[in-house]
Specification:
The protein starts with a helix and ends in a 5-residue tail after the last strand. It is an alpha+beta fold. The protein contains one helix and nine strands. The protein has an eight-stranded antiparallel beta barrel. Helices cover about 15% and strands about 45% of the residues.
Length: about 160
């Protein structure tokens, strides 16, 4: 009888251990900040013209190679996903974004993107080709202007 009760105790401990691992493995990711950080006030919006998937086709007027391209998928309401290649392998991460009116000479609007890895970007943006081409432009810390051209596509390739 003792062997049997020891077996049930071991089985129960195994079930409890596996159950707690499964519960922590399904952690809720609602921590992701889809609203601008405090201090930005109410001067922000989510531009519905961004919604959809965009493929990087040019960087500073030069075509982008297949492993140098990236994709941005804007779901709306500040949610999105960024797809890129890392060591020639597909990778992706979540992104949060919001838009603002801009005092820039380039565009009337700017987009602020926060990537899952903790990096962030603020870029001027505008559309051409009836909204099927998205231009992003920013200055590097050295003062150099960078311009990316994205084309609307049906969906990210992975």
């Amino acid at each position: 009888m003792k062997k049997r009760s020891a077996f049930f105790a071991l089985a129960a401990a195994l079930l409890i251990g596996c159950g707690s691992t499964m519960l922590t493995g399904c952690a809720d990711d609602d921590y992701w900040p889809y609203n601008p950080p405090s201090g930005w006030g109410s001067n922000y919006f989510y531009d519905s013209r961004l919604e959809g998937t965009w493929e990087l086709t040019q960087a500073n007027s030069a075509p982008v190679g297949s492993y140098d391209t990236n994709y941005m998928d804007f779901f709306g309401g500040g949610h999105g996903r960024y797809y890129y290649y890392y060591n020639n392998r597909p990778a992706s991460e979540e992104m949060a974004y919001f838009c603002q009116k801009s005092g820039s000479q380039t565009s009337n609007y700017q987009i602020n993107i926060q990537y899952e890895d903790g990096s962030a970007s603020t870029m001027a943006y505008w559309f051409t080709d009836s909204g099927d081409t998205l231009w992003l432009q920013w200055k590097t810390t050295g003062g150099q202007t960078v311009t990316y051209l994205y084309s609307r596509i049906k969906g990210a390739p992975w």
